[in-house]
Amino acid sequence: VIICCSAQKKNICSAKITALSGQIIVFNEKNSVVRSKIGMRILPSYTIVVRDKSRCALQIGSTKAVLLYGNTIVRAMSLIYDEKTMAEQTYLNLKKGKISVKIFRLMEKNGFFLVKTPAVIAGVRGTEFCAETAAGGDDIISVASGSVKIRRNIKILDDETGKAVARPLLNAISNIAENDFIQITVDQQFTVNRRQNEKFNQAIENVIEKNSERMDKIETALNSRKDSLSPEIIKKAEETLVRITGETLASVTAEQQKEKISSLTPVKINAAELPEIMEIRNYKIHTEEKIQKPADENKPAASPVLQSDDKMEKYTALVQEADRLFESRKFTESRKEYARAAAVIPEMDYPAGRIAEINRLLTQKKSEEKKQPSRPGTTLPQKSPVPETVPPPAPPADLPKKPGMLNLEFDTGAEALITGPGLKEKISTGTREIPPGVYTLEISAPGYETQFEDIIIAGGETVNKTVKLKKKITVEDIVILLDGSEFKGKIISQNENYIIIDTADGQKNIQRSGIFEIRFIGK
Predict the structure, then answer these.
(1) How wide is the angle at C-alpha 354 spanned by C-alphas 209 and 43, nearest 5°?
(2) Are 47 and 78 found together in one domain?
(3) pLDDT per residue over 39-48, tens digit each?
(4) pLDDT tens track for 35-82
(5) Do residue 365 and residue 490 come from a single domain?
(6) First CA to last CA distance, the chain
(7) What gap in Å lies between CA 19 and CA 418, rounded to an integer?
(8) Which bin fits 255, alpha (ψ -120 to 50), beta or left (φ > 0)?
(9) What is the span of the domain harbouring residue 78?
């Protein structure tokens, strides 16, 4: 994570295609196909698709060269040039395939060159290396000169997951990631398994999702009942939020300790004999005069190669229709079109990013609708309306604290433990008096996931809580539907029409026609 706090002037670093052969397709920041030719300028958010038996060479600034090989997809995430410090900052996302990189001289102190693969983030300041997403499921970094610093790709930090994470927790996870790295040098090769990294990310997401839900409940209760809660209870609720954040960080740290990337060992190779290294070493930096200037580089492509590529044409048409629906705020319809586009070319990350954004917007819309009061003329029943100009009377401060009531229901055979100010004991189902305060319920049963519920008890109020435990399962598969929803568990049966997955909420029978993606993360 790089944070620039100064007000220095920054421009887009010059990046151009210097050589190409075969089928090279370029998508601009609007995900439209643009003409690919020698001299074409590559801008941030551009995606380069190199088809089978094709090649493409990029020159970034005056010091960096990148060769892209067949069946490769690369997106330019960041291309920055700082005029004051003369530092170049480059960030490439290798979605698929293989690239080789040569940096001709050590970059300035504030400069960097990052390559992200599905499993790792590789950062350098001056070196020759090769990065590959191998077909066997491994991401491989090979170094011929200099050194490369590698850490895991943690999706919550490095990808657009569409999930909101509290800033203190995000900063803490960032520190964990930056402190767990390995540095490989000349004639070393480092491999990280993508499936293992996916399991690592899933474990982190499960921890954060579980505790984020607890934090959201407390924050919602505070926001909706703040006027009726005493300062003491509000303080305890805020302390509970801090405690949950600490527990979440401890759980994430524990997962990271299980899969420390720094505990892995690179292997010895003769990097100079790798064909990709031999090729990049022969690359010569081109001056501006030697690079052909393109005429109207953003003109829509009309070459015979692109017109005959049915898959690319279908993808482009679907994305354009999805973008149109998105701009018209028809989010449900546009999500379906983005999902269809993703099914045509799964390696393209634009549709997945849009789907994540749509899911976030729809969730936000539902949340806002719940908060809105009923409009005049609705037929919803009203409960003893109070004139808006007359606020409810506040209780006198010197009155003794009245107890609250907790009405608790949970599954037969489970046990419940309540912990709070001056109280820690097992309780059963039913209604009982509880002193005002912030409490944590821990409900557990053999074969089920232990569930934690944080509740706020105010004097004279009754809190109704029903807890439904989820069956304890090992997540090996994730089925993602076209509407963005997902089921996590283990696929136990499937045929050409249906998939049956065993989840924490029971077995789900899912039609294949409604499935967007299936992720296999188990061994």
Answers:
(1) 120
(2) yes
(3) 899 999 899 9
(4) 788 889 999 989 999 988 899 999 988 788 999 999 999 999 988 877
(5) no
(6) 31
(7) 68
(8) alpha
(9) 10-201+258-281
